[in-house]
Predict the structure.
Amino acid sequence: MSSIRSWLFGAALAAASAVSVSAHAQGAPDGANVYETRCKACHDGGNPRAPSRADLAQRAPADIVTALTSGIMQPMAQGLSDADKQAVAAYLTSAPGGEASAGRTSRPTGTEMPQVAIKGGVVGTDPMCATNPPIHAGPSDWASMGVDDASTRFQRHPGLNPADVPKLKVKWAFSMTGGGQPAVVGDWLWVTNRSGKFYALDAKTGCVHWSVDDLVSRTTPMIIKSSIAPSGWATFVSQSDRIVRAFDAQTGKELWKSAQIETHPVSVLTGSPVVAGDRLIVPISSIEEAAAMSKAYSCCTFRGSVAALDLKTGKLLWKTPMIDGPMKTIRDKTTGGKVQGPAGAAVWAAPTLDKKRGLVYAVTGDSYTDIDTNGDDAIVALDLKTGAIKWRRQVSEHDNFVMGCGPRSESGNCPTPLGPDYDFGATPVLMTLHGGKQVLVAGQKSGIVYGLNPDTGALIWKTIVGAGSALGGVEWGIGADDSRVYVPISDLVYLFNPATASKGKAGVYALNPADGAIVWSAPAPVAPCVYASDKGKPSRCARAQPAAPAVIPGLVFEGGLDGWFRAYDAKTGKIVWEDSTTSRTYDTVNGIKGQPGGGIDGMGPTVADGMVFITSGNNGAARVGSNGVNVLLAYSVDGK
């Protein structure tokens, strides 16, 4: 989403003072000194994108090291030695022995229960399933991020009806670092997380069928029936390091591993891949907005793109950049290097398929430099076979933005004037109206929702729903059934300040897809919540609703950064069920006692075969409500 996010960006985790001298170079590693010089400006500065010092203390030391080494904080860690990273992680988490490790160990399949470091000195165990039965598809499967090609997030056969929903209770919980949205086929569940573990679980019990331990990702796995896998079932996952991998979904055996599909050093894969016939469509984004905070960084050269890989081999078939034209120098920097462009237009979200028209629809983030381009903040249609751009609709001009700009900025990379950071981070939805016509619906961080003609990109309607800001507006996703489109609104920035809280429109809204008219609105209620990192301090709970929804016949599921998870009547917006995931702790199936819940963010819930799955703890996003270690919750009727 562009900075957006990050779920990421949540990012932006970071920090700031771009000091290029390693603390290690000055003597023994001093975690406190590293934090004071490299991190404090953002993490103690009230930056809503960055987790507070208390939030960081809830994380596993290895998670912090991974973020500094290969994650979103990598640009901010330039010049730090491995010892420096270990030291600051130990300082922040008070790890026993003063040492943190980013190393990973193998996880066997079978009945063993290998140990898993979850946080600090707490150790859990992977509860291995006694048997690994064959995968059997069912009508209630949720096998991709958006559940169908049109990315509606509409589960037509949920295995439960509206009368069952008020009886939902947690059946099991699984603790993991930064877990994302799971995919479910039959009794099997697959989920990634930023610690580097990719799990295949039993959906009914939470036991582990298998795990892969070197796969850092925040994307939803794509599961398909395919002859490329010995079991007949394959799963595809995008890694943060720009590599896509295919596995046998039943055994975890790797089928292929692509080359890096983007070579830019700060590019990342944040959007889930989708299968289109014999190819896999992959969106490509970056964290160059964060890298630009450093005065040593020459900004900016990344351009977002969409790529297609051969489904059988992972070979790159085509890759289309979202920005055209040659790179130009804008100015030389007084600190050395230069500012150049055009750059940006990261593709944060999973694309949407339109097999009828032979198109794939992608949405883009903002521009990073002063050179304007028509590729940023845009909805783009590409030819599935060739990648050629068929049409492009830019909805916000001059949105030139990088992080860390302000009166005290010394990076020399800031565009003038600085744009509002209104990129797209939510996958568009292709809706079929009652008369048979179709409309492509896209929601932006500006708080505006657009309805476009999928043949031409012509604007049919636009509706202002939220107040909009760099943190939403619409952040992670929208959903739809056959009658309405459902739009969660974050408006997080407004909620921090009592003077602006009334301007925010956090909540869930239903729109008529034919004309964009608001059918109903359900403002986010003020409700009690407790973040684990807020103990003994004033609560920072926020009612923002940035997560993507899940829709079933008659109901809409949506969670909030305050940890509340709710079901809304699809016709009226009335809340028919709610549960506070921060009101209690959880004894998880992988052996963690008293695991707290937290904010709900990111790709949102999955509904399959009578169960509802959601990650509590902010899905790894680095802002309010993040516990660092998340808990995947599995709800069923009466918890049975």
